[in-house]
Amino acid sequence: MPPESPAPTVVVAAALYDTDERLLAARRSAPPELAGRWELPGGKVEPGETPERALVRELREELGIEAEPLARVPGEWPLKAGYVLRVWRCHLRSGAPRPLQDHDELRWLTADEVWSVDWLDQDVPAVKEVLRDRD
Ligand SMILES: Nc1nc2c([nH]c(=O)n2[C@H]2C[C@H](O)[C@@H](COP(=O)(O)OP(=O)(O)OP(=O)(O)O)O2)c(=O)[nH]1
């Protein structure tokens, strides 16, 4: 039998909507191989942290907002080796998102605009599920 691989690092990300039901997308500014591509904002869960708390922390650090994770979007998507992406539908409690860290542009996308940005390849199936989850 092959040796068991260690548990993957979980990257948590937000499906965050504004009052017009537009979805927030963020353009990465780093690292170079990901810069310019769009993603759902979030980051890595730290040891001892719950995914929901990690998401609240990341959204505060990266966007300057207070958000509340509501429900997990079904599914899990592989990223680079050793990393998986999980997504939560979130409620924006306060603040207006600004690209404070890791991003150089944010965009609120209507349903018609969702595919107008160049999502990271690995985010495409996650975004499709986010859209299904919203319906
Ligand atoms: N946040 C986020 N990261 C993603 C997505 N898709 C994707 O491949 N990634 C990758 C980019 C990074 O290699 C990794 C997440 O790292 P990060 O840089 O956002 O996380 P972090 O804030 O905890 O980073 P760090 O400073 O501790 O390195 O997952 C996505 O939709 N959202």
UniProtKB/TrEMBL annotation:
CDD domains registered for this protein in UniProt: NUDIX_MutT_NudA_like (cd03425)
Catalyzed reactions per annotation: 8-oxo-dGTP + H2O = 8-oxo-dGMP + diphosphate + H(+)
Domain Nudix hydrolase: 7-132
Keyword Transferase in annotation: no
PANTHER family documented for this protein: 8-OXO-DGTP DIPHOSPHATASE (PTHR47707), NUDIX HYDROLASE FAMILY PROTEIN (PTHR47707:SF1)
Family statement drawn from the similarity comment of this UniProt entry: Belongs to the Nudix hydrolase family.
Protein name listed in UniProt: 8-oxo-dGTP diphosphatase
